[in-house]
Amino acid sequence: MSISTLSWTNRTLHDAFIPSHLLGTRKNHVKKALKEYPRLKKAVVPVDPEVRIPLTWPMGTYGLPMPKSGCPKGTKFPWHVGTRFHDTEDARGKNSLVNSI
User: Fold this and answer.
1) Are 20 and 27 in contact (CB under 8 A)?
2) How many Cα atoms occupy the beta-carbon half-sphere of 67 within 13 Å?
3) What InterPro entries does the entry give (predicted)?
4) How many whole angstroms separate alpha carbon 97 and alpha carbon 67?
């Protein structure tokens, strides 16, 4: 059974109030309506284009926290290991940097 044009018109406010035992039926009708409405209106279903975003880093040097498992293997760039300490507790900062990461 197909949805006719009359299914989309001639409705009253009373139709919006549904007894709880009929909610499943209304749910199925809404699903069917949403599925058939584009065909009824001869709508063309759009196709999403494939999106490709290159995964690159801007130029510069970065410091990343190293995971417990170590640096990633098989990359096209070397990983350097070092430490950085930030003392921002008071006015007498004792920041330090080792191995120029």
Assistant:
1) no
2) 5
3) ApeC (IPR031569)
4) 19
Residue 4 has pLDDT above 80, yes or no: no
Token pair 């063309």 is found at 44
Q: Each residue of 58-82: pLDDT tens digit? A: 888 778 888 889 888 888 878 888 8
Least Cα distance to 2 among 38, 27, 36 occurs for 36
Residue 8 phi, psi (nearest 5): -100, 0
Q: Is the pTM of this model over 0.85?
A: no
DSSP state of 97: E
Q: Which two tokens stand for residue 74?
A: 């098989």
CA distance 87 to 85: 7
The CA distance from 63 to 57, in Å, is 12
- C-alpha–C-alpha distance, residues 82 and 51, integer Å: 37
